[in-house]
Amino acid sequence: MSQLEGKTALVSGAADGLGEAIAARLAAEGARVAVLDRSAEAIERSAARPEMAGVHFEQVDLCDATDIAAALDRLDAAGFAFDILVNNAGGSLHTPRAFVEETDDDWERVMTLNVTAAVRLTRAVVPGMVDRRYGRIINLGSKAGRYGSLFTGANYVAAKGAIQSMTLQLAQEFGPYGITCNAVCPGATLTPRVERLLSERQTPEERARVLESIPVRRHGTVGDVAHAVSFFASGESGFITGQLLDVNGGQGMCS
């Protein structure tokens, strides 16, 4: 696979789990990939994996504007000019599911990681895309932001809804410059983090009922989502923009 040969990609929150799978997929298709992640331990583990060979890692707190700016300056000095941006960083941060139990801090932290970090990265990267008249922005939404959630709270649902709505506006604003913007909206994807959250918040019987509600009768894998992201990152998707692609096995559908 080499459909991304000559392209350069930035993936946030990508030293493990879903983000790592996305970064590996883009690299396998020929892209030069840079990864931003907060965890030094996760970066060390990821950098040792064969599929991540050649990927450039930067340790950065994606909730800190100064830290993001410094990391992007380092990437610029290293010769990176990004054709592809994948705003993957996010999560519910194990905040309460019950709305009345969520504090102002719970809302602020979840919104900062899921929304504000994507805003800052996009704001930094998109001027170069405009200059080159080419770009692919892929935001990670969620089934939660489309249809609500069975195990995360309103703060996470609202954050993903915001990301998905922002996707539509960016598609309108930057389409004339050859830049597409789409969102991939996964259902429950069985990363270790999601497995822990499900085991804490649902009984085995509840989990079995949820599985029965999915038409394809399985949860998603990181590969399912990475494949969708790679399509939106490719030249083949040049006439597709402003789309929210559900990757949830049919658990949530709309026409």
List key phrases describing it.
255 residues, alpha/beta, Rossmann fold
Care to give the gist of this entry?
α1 packs across α9 (222-233) and α3 (65-77) packs parallel to α4. With 255 residues, this protein is an alpha/beta fold. The protein is built from 9 helices and 7 strands; from the N terminus they run βαβαβαβαβααβαααβ.
Q: Write the CATH architecture name.
A: 3-Layer(aba) Sandwich
**How much strand?**
5-15%
Task: Provide the CATH superfamily.
Answer: NAD(P)-binding Rossmann-like Domain
Domain count: 1
What is the spatial order of strands in the main beta sheet?
A: 3-2-1-4-5-6-7
Count of helix runs: 9
Distance between the termini: 33 Å
Helix-strand pattern, N to C? EHEHEHEHEHHEHHHE
Unreliable stretches (pLDDT < 50, length at least 5) are none
Would you report the number of β strands?
Answer: 7
Mean pLDDT: 95
**Proportion of helical residues:** 40-55%
CATH fold-level label? Rossmann fold
Oligomer: single chain
Radius of gyration using CA atoms only: 17 Å
How does the overall form come out from the CA principal axes? globular
> Major sheet: size, sense and barrel closure?
7 strands, parallel
Could you walk me through the main structural features you see in this protein, from its secondary elements to its overall organization?
The chain has 255 residues and is an alpha/beta fold. It has a single domain (8-188, 225-246), classed as NAD(P)-binding Rossmann-like Domain (Rossmann fold, 3-Layer(aba) Sandwich), CATH 3.40.50. It contains nine helices and seven strands; from the N terminus they run E-H-E-H-E-H-E-H-E-H-H-E-H-H-H-E. Strands 3-2-1-4-5-6-7 form a seven-stranded parallel sheet, sandwiched between helices. Strand 1, helix 1 (17-28) and strand 2 form a beta-alpha-beta unit.
